[in-house]
Amino acid sequence: MMKKNLRFILFMLCIPMMLASCIRPDGEGHESRKEQPTLGDAPEHYYESVEYSYQTDVNVEKLLTGLDSDYLLLANKEYVLGADHAPASVVTLTCDTYLNKEVKLESRTAEALYEMMEEMHAAGVTDISVTSGYRTYSYQQGLFNQYLKNEMATISDDARKCFSSDYLREKYTENGLTGLDYADARVVVLSYSAFPGTSEHQTGLCLDFVSSGAILTTAFENTEAFAWLKDNAHKFGFILRYPKGKEDITGYTYEPWHYRFVGREAATDIYYGNLTLEEYLGVTNE
Ligand SMILES: [Zn+2]
Questions:
Q1: What residues flank ion ligand 1 with Cβ within 5 A?
Q2: Residue 133 has what pLDDT?
Q3: Beta strands of the chain (E only): which ranges?
Q4: 179, 177, 174: which is closest to 154 by C-alpha?
Q5: pLDDT at residue 191 above 90?
């Protein structure tokens, strides 16, 4: 009993040390931080042959009708953004946001979003609001550390999804431990949260949509809003960023609510080509 208590105390003493060392600035901890890809040719061009029609008086200049590498910025588990990366210009959204919370986006992305929201409303889709736009590196870092602390305090349902019950019982429960060690906690947290520098939200170019009853769950795919977005978002320069069936390429599970602004030309080629941003930029085979 003494021995178990001592192990527990030592473990608890280690937590602050482990937390302090887990997050380092600049995406360190990922062996290789890749250079942004240069824009190659899209596998197939659809843009020139597509006719756009809008119900509302859309200002197409706001949709970025050409290509601009700033809007094709890649942020994922391999292409890590530095701690100092932030969009050049950020605005606070004036459209409907979930729970009226403050949501920020890169300014051009916000303008394209407003044009798109107007069109959605005109199409009769009103059960829609926006959440999680731009998130800073330090916000993501705080979030990640908080999740680590939680996993190190109790064995959660997420932990049970990541590890077998035998493993958890032998390593923790039988040793009187109620939470995971750092290495195991990190595995669990990475199953649901982006490591700082790897979240696309740090670009300011993406956002999450919410409908009643579908708050960041796959139930969003059954909403009126999703039915509209799926086939119209590209007309406004937005793409479904983490599609179903492309998890191996994006590194993320299917997220029907997460949309990314890339400008109308790239979005159109991505939509008709049934691509992900990674495939469009030609970085999937590295
Ligand atoms: Zn998102």
A1: 208, 258
A2: 95
A3: 90-92, 104-106, 129-131, 206-210, 238-242, 255-261
A4: 179
A5: no
E strand spans, 26-160: 90-92, 104-106, 129-131
Rounded distance from Cα 201 to ligand 1 centre (Å):
6
- Cβ–Cβ under 8 Å, residues 134 and 201: yes
Two tokens, residue 286 = 């590295």
pTM beyond 0.70: the answer is yes
Q: Say how many Å lie between the CA of residue 166 and the centre of ligand 1.
A: 34
In three-state secondary structure terms, 153 is: helix
Q: Domain ranges in the chain?
A: 63-135+200-280, 141-198
Residues constituting the chain:
286
CATH number for the domain whose boundaries are 63-135+200-280: 3.30.1380.10
The answer to whether 18 touches 182, Cβ cutoff 8 Å, is: yes
Element (H, E) at 159: helix 157-162
Tell me the catalytic residues: 255
Model confidence at 107, in pLDDT bands (50, 70, 90)? very high
Q: Return the amino acid letter for 103.
A: V
Say how many Å lie between the CA of residue 176 and the centre of ligand 1.
37
Distance CA 158, CA 257 (A): 21
Q: How many Å apart are CA 232 and CA 120, to the nearest integer?
A: 9
